[in-house]
Amino acid sequence: MAGVNRISDKLKVVSSSSRRKRKRSPFFLPEEILFSILLKLPVEVLCNVMRYVCREWYNVINDPCFIDAHLQKSTNCLLIQSYRFPNFFHFVEIHDSDIQTRMVRYEFPMSAYSSCDGLILFRCNEEGIFYVANPTTMQLVKLPPLSSKWCFIRAPLLTYFRSTGRCKVVLILRDENNHNVCLILTVGADSAWRQIDTKHFPDFASHSFSCKSFSTGGYIYLTCDYASHLFALDAEAEIFHRFPKPDCTIGGKYMVWKSFLGLVAHHAAFVWELWALTDLNTGKWTKLLYIDLRGKRCKIEQKFDVPYGESSVQGYLSRKNLSLDRCLVPIASLKNGEVLIFRGTLPFKTYIVFNLKTRKVSSFVICRGEEHASNFYVCHINNLVLLNAS
Predict the structure, then answer these.
(1) Beta strands across the sheet bearing 77-82
(2) If 0-12 CB within 10 Å is exposed, 13-18 middle and 19+ buried, where does residue 13 land?
(3) What is the 3-state composition of the chain as percent helix, strand, coil, each rounded to the nearest 5?
């Protein structure tokens, strides 16, 4: 309730001043009640309807205290962009009894690279320029251009600090000597990119980073499928750390699980292990649970789409000498770690949703055609966060 109290004190000053100048608005409500009611509404309703009702409601919805309170109570969804149709985004929301998908068309047809607290890092391929946008408020901030001496962009990522409202963007590039360098920029504060010192990690310069990187808790994680460790950037202090990988039997896929960096590793047929980097001081990984889907195999097979030209899923797998569980790639965790989403590898277009709490298996299909192979997908929170573009 701290956020409610802060905004309540602020609104009392505004409302008392307003009453001296004009009659009370027909939509007047006590500040605490107005705050609580608006806090329960979806962000799309707040952004497109409620903030236009009157000046008082507009001020409440755009107040940083309200934005932060609404962000903290929001649940994440899965955002999917097809690189063949960059104007179109699919938002997948998981509810108790169903899966809701909606498609939204935006006017900025750029490739998405990263999302944090609802802000998305885009790159215009024609210009080679990065942008940070909030697709809910349609706010778009253009970032400074990069020097021509940098090439081969890897692991572009952004992070947002709720305490300060600042947003930082991190890029891993190659210099003229083909060495890795790390550039960082504070949106709205820096007029040019700054280079972070990585000399205390000599192997950073030659490390083969994955294109997939992650941001959570103010840290940016740079991963590599074949290395025994990963790098983590404390984005606020702008200092790199190095952590070992967990002791997994077989490689896995990284993702953000709750507020931790997680790793879902294949353990056996239709069994995965969920690990989390739970202690940043020691680099300790904790094995949290086994994800056992052996009893769900038939149901998963029924939910898979039959590849074009094939008579059945099992017939295709037998002909290709594949196992169904090897066609399941874990990609995201939603609802505060309650739901795990798998993507079917080509030619399958199915996404499998597994609820770790209820053990319910469901599915959805977004894309038709070969564009499924080049989808960008990331956990996303629809919110009202305003970018500081000054």
Answers:
(1) 99-105, 88-94, 77-82, 375-380
(2) exposed
(3) 20, 40, 40
The token pair at 306 is 């039959």
Work out the number of other CB atoms within 10 angstroms of the CB of residue 377. 19
The pLDDT tens digits for 37-47 are: 899 998 889 98
Per-residue pLDDT of 344-359, as tens digits, reads 887 788 899 999 999 9
Per-residue buried b or exposed e for 150-165, using 16+ beta carbons within 10 Å of the residue's own CB: beebbbbbbbbeeeee
Q: State the DSSP H helix or E strand holding residue 119, giving kind and residue range, or none if neither.
A: strand 119-124
What confidence tens digit (pLDDT) does each residue in 4-38 have? 444 444 444 444 444 444 455 555 678 888 889 89
Angstrom distances, CA of residue 15 to CA of 12, 57, 59, 223, 338 = 5, 11, 11, 51, 42
Longest dimension (CA), the chain: 80
Strand partners, 285: 277
122 has pLDDT over 50:
yes
In whole angstroms, give the CA distance from residue 297 to residue 243: 35
- Helix 31-39, helix 64-73: angle, nearest 10: 40
